[in-house]
Write a structure and sequence with these properties.
By secondary structure, the chain is mainly alpha-helical. The chain is about 70% helix and about 0% strand.
Length: about 180
């Protein structure tokens, strides 16, 4: 994923959030937070099920993964299943949130403070897309497949999102990575 593509996704989040308005975007953001909490408590159980259903992709050796410097001490197969389970739970929550938000779409028609509604929605839309990109890129960073790993070595924005997102970058290191 190129820097340009990442920037386009973030801008799309801002525009769609501004179009939705603050109220509907607050519902989307609250749904993301609830989904995150549910994923935090349930991803390990789901990961155990996924481990029996999905084979771990192989490609390059673990020492070729670009974003983690503790390669030899990490069980990348379990880390991959943890990441997939977490993102899967987030995705299910995102779909449920979109259904609820669609029902509230008429609330944006109320003429309260139209400009604040658009700006607030745009900011929240940007943040939601940033977080979504963070989890997708973090999941991809666990795959030992050369083209995916090359994407991180040649993409400063993708690497920045995964390694420098406040709170979340440390969270996935603490929660997803399984040490031997």
């Amino acid at each position: 994923m190129s820097n340009l593509m990442i920037i386009a996704i973030l801008l799309l989040g801002s525009f769609s959030g501004a179009r939705r308005g603050l109220i509907v975007q607050l519902v989307h953001t609250a749904g993301l937070i609830v989904s995150f909490i549910l994923a935090s408590f349930n991803f390990k159980a789901v990961a155990n099920v996924l481990e029996t259903l999905i084979p771990y992709p192989t490609g390059t050796t673990a020492s070729d993964l670009n974003l983690y410097n503790v390669m030899k001490a990490v069980q990348f197969d379990q880390t991959f299943y943890n990441a997939v389970a977490f993102v899967l739970i987030l995705l299910i929550g995102w779909i449920a949130t979109r259904v609820v938000a669609a029902m509230l779409n008429n609330l944006t028609k109320i003429p309260i403070l139209k400009q604040l509604n658009g700006i607030g929605g745009g900011v929240l839309g940007f943040l939601c897309n940033w977080i979504g990109l963070f989890f997708i890129l973090s999941l991809l960073s666990t795959l030992p497949i050369a083209p995916i790993q090359n994407m991180f070595s040649g993409n400063s924005l993708a690497t920045f999102i995964v390694k420098q997102t406040p709170v979340l970058s440390q969270y996935i290191l603490d929660q997803w990575l399984v040490m031997r």
